[in-house]
Amino acid sequence: MKFLFAMFISFVVYIFAVGSLGFEGIIVGLAVSFLVALITKDLLVKDEKKVLSPKRWMNCIWYFLVYWFYYEVKAHWDVVKRVFTLDIKPGIVRIPYNLESEYGIVSVANSITNTPGTIVIELDEEKRYYYVHWISVVSPEERVCYEQISKDFEKYIRRFL
Questions:
Q1: Where in the sequence is the domain holding 94, given as residue range(s)?
Q2: End-to-end CA distance of the chain, in Å?
Q3: Rounded Cα distance, 95 and 142, in Å
Q4: Number of compact structural domains in the chain
Q5: What whole-number distance in Å separates Cα of residue 83 and Cα of residue 6?
């Protein structure tokens, strides 16, 4: 089961990266996915029961929809307004995180970085902090930064870990 799931995920990523559903692309994608699955099946799949959970998949899809159609749009609009008004107060802030899973920690870091106006520049695993460059620092306080930047991402990501 681990192998099939890893192959499926690898194939989907390959097809999105190539952007084609041509015959040759599918054949090469299956071959590449087969090899990737052989190498990474134990890294990609820790718990087979979670992989097949419909609730987990629905939470993943919900996170995707909320992230792309709410947080991304909101952040883009905020950056556009700041460009025209020149209302920026850039700085680097320290944000604590409360996740245990490496997947969760990286997922939140990627969500922060992919959102316009914020970039994770450092991850301190020992002290459990993200260091984030923020286009308009509201407050240097860790709690405020957590509430403004990563709290909602953690909330949604916890649902499918």
A1: 53-158
A2: 18
A3: 5
A4: 2
A5: 42
60 shares its domain with 42: no
For residues 66 and 139, state if they share a domain.
yes
Same domain, 46 and 112: no
pTM (predicted TM-score): 0.69
Place of tokens 């071959």: 31
pLDDT at 32 over 70: yes
- Span 138-152, pLDDT tens digits: 999 999 999 999 998
Residue 33 is which amino acid? S
- Domain check: are 112 and 87 in the same one? yes
**Is 115 in contact with 72 (CB distance < 8 Å)?**
yes
Q: How far is CA 131 from the centre of its chain?
A: 16
Q: Three-state secondary structure along 76-119?
A: HHHHHHHHHHCCCECEEEEEECCCCCHHHHHHHHHHHHHCCCEE
Q: Are residues 61 and 136 in the same domain?
A: yes
Distances (CA, A) of 121 to 33, 128, 129, 140: 31, 14, 11, 16
Residue-wise pLDDT for 76-95, tens only, equals 999 999 989 999 999 999 99
Taking a C-beta distance cutoff of 8 angstroms, is the pair 46, 52 a contact?
Answer: no
**63 in the same domain as 131:** yes
